[in-house]
Automatic annotation (TrEMBL):
This is DUF2029 domain-containing protein. The keyword Signal does not apply. Keywords: Membrane, Transmembrane, Transmembrane helix. The chain crosses the membrane at residues 31-49, 69-89, 96-114, 134-155, 162-178, 231-252, 259-279, 285-303, 310-331, 351-370. The lineage of its organism: Bacteria, Bacillati, Actinomycetota, Actinomycetes, Streptosporangiales. It comes from the Bacteria. The keyword Nucleotidyltransferase does not apply. It comes from Nonomuraea bangladeshensis.
Length: 392
């Protein structure tokens, strides 16, 4: 706990910056770092709360004041404070980054009471794919996108810039992949049921059964644990998850960037797994296949090397199109193969193999869109100037 003297000193440092300004104003380096390390703290609290939340809802009947919700709310409170600071002072963000942060935070705050109303009206919300939950993900999506842009445009070049950018992109991947955790927890819960073990408390199972209008049996368990079609998991993982990894590779601009971001997220899920299970909460399948996906994306980007592009350009447009299809096929084979292998070894949601066609087409469209936006809409970041002396 900070002493009154340290609090006073921090206030004396911060108060001179509390002036009205437009987004894009020159930001001193020390203030810029404080703001974005504040974002790291906020998003870490939200990450820990959301990770605990999924496991909690596979064990206990829902409670608005459950500890995971309170932990997530602490992170949200910091998010709101940072959003107000950026909006009032204009420090640390350009206009687009500020708008993304404001809209994202606003959508999230609107979604919270809507989700509470949804639970009051409809009872147990069995799937993480419900409209009110999707609003929460969408709000967080825009919020973190704004943070990524703000850091990307304003952070001075260096190792810190790269690793903090990778951290923000890992938070972004976690939010995008978050709804998939329903199937990752669900498949192991069904397996436990088949082995005469039950993770959920009887009150939760009975509540779900009453809502479905049937007894507590395997059909009810399937409806509770795996309520969406089997094709949704692999298609969404490929189109949405790999798109984030493509963006990570484009923004960081180095070989291994996609693998780094995917590996950071998977490492977190691997570390949190024993912390949850050893305290009596249900386990989940960990998406190890995302590391394979990240490596596939990094390898695919080797085609962007000048020497390779020169050879491909000399062959012609037909070769480019053929090459794109070959790369897409290799990535799809690697990712679907990794999911299939994980399904037999470490556990994974059911894999609808024919869905690879739709996943591949979706990934190709998303990849081309990301490349187009990166070429036309993302300017080169400008280093922050040396901090000016701020006086009261």
């Amino acid at each position: 706990m900070k002493s009154p003297a340290s609090i006073k000193k921090a206030a004396e440092w911060a108060l001179p910056y509390w002036t009205r300004g437009q987004a894009g104003r020159e930001t001193p380096n020390d203030l810029f770092r404080v703001l974005y390390f504040g974002w790291l703290v906020a998003l870490t609290l939200k990450l820990l709360g959301s990770a605990w939340d999924v496991s909690w809802h596979f064990k206990w009947l829902r409670d608005d004041l459950a500890p995971p919700h309170l932990l997530n709310s602490a992170g949200t409170a910091i998010v709101v404070a940072l959003t107000i600071i950026h909006g009032y002072t204009g420090y640390g963000v350009d206009k687009l980054a500020l708008r993304l942060i404001q809209w994202g935070t606003g959508i999230f705050l609107v979604a919270v009471p809507l989700d509470l109303i949804n639970h009051r009206v409809n009872g147990l919300d069995i799937t993480s794919w419900s409209p009110s939950h999707i609003m929460l993900y969408v709000g967080t999506f825009f919020m973190i996108a704004g943070v990524i842009r703000g850091w990307f445009m304003g952070a001075p070049p260096g190792r810190e810039r790269t690793f903090v950018l990778a951290a923000f992109l890992a938070f972004f991947l976690e939010n995008v992949h978050f709804p998939e955790q329903h199937q990752e927890y669900g498949i192991l819960s069904v397996g436990a049921w088949d082995n005469n073990a039950v993770y959920a408390e009887p009150i939760l199972l009975q509540f779900a059964a009453d809502q479905m209008g049937r007894p507590v049996d395997r059909t009810m368990m399937l409806g509770f644990a795996l309520p969406v079609p089997d094709f949704l998991y692999p298609v969404y993982a490929v189109v949405a998850g790999l798109s984030v990894l493509v963006v990570a590779r484009l923004l960081i601009g180095r070989f291994g960037a996609a693998t780094l971001v995917a590996g950071a997220y998977v490492a977190f899920r691997t570390l949190i797994w024993p912390l949850l299970t050893f305290t009596g909460f249900p386990p989940s399948a960990v998406p190890f296949f995302l590391v394979v996906a990240g490596l596939a994306v990094d390898v695919a980007f080797l085609l962007r090397m000048p020497a390779v592009r020169a050879v491909v350009g000399a062959v012609g447009a037909t070769a480019v199109a053929y090459g794109a299809l070959v790369v897409q096929s290799k990535i799809m084979g690697a990712v679907y193969g990794a999911v299939k292998g994980q399904e037999g070894l470490a556990g994974a949601p059911p894999l609808a193999t024919p869905s690879a066609v739709w996943a591949g087409l979706g990934l190709l469209a998303a990849w081309l869109a990301a490349e187009w936006i990166a070429r036309r809409r993302v300017p080169a970041p400008a280093p922050i100037e040396a901090p000016a002396v701020v006086t009261a």
